[in-house]
Design brief:
The protein has 162 residues and is of the alpha+beta class. The protein has a single domain, classed as Nucleoside Triphosphate Pyrophosphohydrolase, CATH 3.90.79.10. The protein has 4 helices and 9 strands; from the N terminus they run αββββαββαβββα. Strands 1, 2, 3, 4, 7, 8 and 9 form a 7-stranded mixed β-sheet that branches. It has a two-stranded antiparallel sheet with strand order 5-6. Strand 2 and strand 3 form a beta hairpin.
């Protein structure tokens, strides 16, 4: 069950999104194993609302012209996640098969999917546009101020790689 704080944050986000309904979006939870074999995730500190001042994954809204559709009328969430990650941290995902479906939420008029990406090679990432900082966090030491659903996304990641 979601906490009162989570529900308040969700309500605030939903109000901002209401003008763009239905909302379809996607993001990528980027992870790696550090030199000690511990799992870390890459999070960015958001500069703008929604979730300003919270650590979050790169992601955002589906754009029909840029991202297209799959299976008839279903938004191409994978393309959205790749585009948003490129825009927000300048990380290119060259092979869509490197992304695995990790997590999703579908509530009336709000649809969001998260994909996992294992960064096995060192790549350049740039703090751009949406984030004021980027940082790797051990999965057992996430900051207190993470955006809605980040903890459940990380939990899903850990279940999928164990």
């Amino acid at each position: 069950m979601a906490s009162k704080k989570s529900l308040s944050a969700i309500t605030k986000n939903v109000k901002q999104i209401m003008k763009h309904l239905p909302y379809h979006g996607a993001g990528i939870l980027i992870w790696r194993k550090n030199i000690h074999g511990k799992t870390e995730v890459l999070l960015g500190l958001r500069k703008y609302n929604p979730q300003r001042g919270k650590w979050s994954i790169p992601g955002g809204g589906w754009d029909e012209k840029k991202d297209g559709v799959e299976a008839g009328t279903t938004p191409n969430y994978r393309a959205t996640a790749i585009r948003e990650t490129q825009e927000e941290i300048r990380l290119s995902i060259d092979n869509v098969d490197d992304l695995t479906h990790l997590w999703q939420i579908h509530i009336p008029a709000y649809y969001f999917r998260v994909f996992a990406y294992n960064m096995t090679k060192k790549k350049d990432i740039v703090c751009h546009a949406e984030f004021s900082q980027l940082r790797w966090f051990p999965v057992d030491s996430l900051p207190d101020n993470v955006a809605c659903f980040v903890r459940s996304q990380v939990s899903s990641l850990m279940k999928s790689i164990d």
